[in-house]
Design a protein that fits this description.
The protein is an alpha/beta fold. It is built from six helices and eight strands, in the order H-E-E-E-H-H-E-H-H-E-E-H-E-E. It has a six-stranded mixed beta sheet. The protein has a two-stranded parallel ribbon with strand order 6-8. Helix 3 (38-53) packs parallel to helix 5 (96-119) and helix 5 runs parallel beside helix 6 (134-140).
């Protein structure tokens, strides 16, 4: 099987592929819900393992679509999962205990991603663009190399 087929995957949140000897993981949208979803975050983490085991892959690059790490999306996510949120227009579909689990899961999965980057045996690169909230900017610091676009701002 060609390497490009082996690394190709795409859904609403993630896209993975190989570009020569570089495995690329592109974060597409709604990253805050993705990172609290066990199945989606499992796909994200499993890509690290797949890239590390493959002999032809020499580096892993994580990139983001513009706007997927922005403060407005993060603020909506936090307000939804915080138990004391009474903001008009936010529908409460879940119990406060379940919502707290989302926040805890987000923190745990971000920590797991940081550990994956630190322990990754090959070169790791994170390239960020547009607005990036602090937790994801902080997680990017665990990579070997970090690049940002001219319009990147963290908040």
């Amino acid at each position: 099987m060609p390497m490009t087929d082996e690394f190709w995957y795409e859904d609403n949140a993630l896209k993975t592929y190989a570009e020569g000897p570089v495995a690329v993981l592109k974060i597409k949208c709604n990253v805050f819900d993705t990172i609290t979803d066990l199945a989606e975050s499992g796909k994200f983490i499993s890509f690290f393992h797949k890239a590390e085991r493959h002999k032809q892959i020499k580096a892993l690059m994580i990139i983001n679509e513009g706007g997927c790490f922005n403060e407005d999306e993060y603020d909506r996510f936090l307000k939804r999962v915080m138990e004391d949120s009474n903001e008009p227009g936010i529908e409460r579909n879940e119990t406060p205990m379940f919502e707290k689990a989302h926040r805890t899961r987000q923190i745990n999965i971000l920590n797991r991603i940081i550990l994956q980057l630190v322990d990754f045996k090959k070169i790791s690169v994170v390239a960020l663009q547009q607005h990036v909230v602090t937790p994801f900017f902080g997680a990017s610091l665990a990579a070997d190399f970090r690049y940002v676009s001219d319009d990147m701002v963290f908040s």
